[in-house]
Amino acid sequence: MAINFHFFGNNFYNFFFICVCKLPETNLNKNLQSIDNYVFIKNYKTLISSKEFWTYVIPGSLSYCNIFVFISSSSIILIDILSIQTKFYGYCFALGVSGYLTGTIICRILLKSSSSKKVLKIGTSCSLIGGIFFFITSFSGIWHWIVLVISMFIIMMSHGINFPISQSGAINPFPKLAGTASGLMGFIFMLSAFFAGIIIGVSYNKTLYPIAFISLTICFLNFISVRFFFK
């Protein structure tokens, strides 16, 4: 672990030095007003007060929360609770994460014939199905690695549908504030995942019950939020 830390730490400083000292500035039309503190505050105020921004950021952050529930707990569930050998954990996780790749492909196909709002509703419906499946199987005593992988695949697939739409929907209305919108959106996503990880850690009791309940709750909130904003 210490070797990895030093390796990545040293490489970070090396690349930082190269970027700062060796790479030329590509922005030839600098806007000095963009780094003014007043403009900063004004831009963020514009985004925070925009309903259109939150219409897509909230579903996106909830979807991100949901996959982080599995990302942060999958190793504990598979290895500690379900007694999967550590050498097989990577395969199980890869199968679950492949759902995200599948979801992005499905999202692209759906957008050819449907609006982004309709596709987002499909994605959140898919997420709710995954949450219900995991909840029912967990509270029915069906504790098996296949159940977790299937649940994770469905949740990840729904994220692959929801996330691209949330990103584009939150940024596209603000072409002149794209960088600010992207940064604020990313901050909200990371913050929501941070709290999701804390809740998972605090509620862990060596069973699947709290994890299944938290996942279903997030799925339900995401399902409701999209239908609330897109009345």
Number of helices: 8
CATH topology: Growth Hormone, Chain: A
Count of structural domains: 1
Tell me, briefly, the overall form. globular
CATH class label = Mainly Alpha
Outline the low-pLDDT stretches. Answer: none
Largest sheet: none
Helices and strands: which structural class?
Answer: mainly alpha
The gist of it:
This protein is mostly helical and 231 residues long.
How would you explain this protein's 3D organization?
The structure is a single chain. It is built from eight helices and no strands. The protein is mainly alpha-helical and 231 residues long. The protein has one domain: MFS general substrate transporter like domains (Growth Hormone, Chain: A, Up-down Bundle). It starts with a helix and ends with a helix.
SSE diagram, text form:
Layout: H1 2-21, H2 37-48, H3 51-81, H4 86-110, H5 116-139, H6 145-171, H7 178-203, H8 209-229
Helix pairs in contact: 3-4, 3-6, 3-7, 3-8, 4-6, 5-6, 5-8
Features:
Growth Hormone, Chain: A, globular, mainly alpha, 231 residues
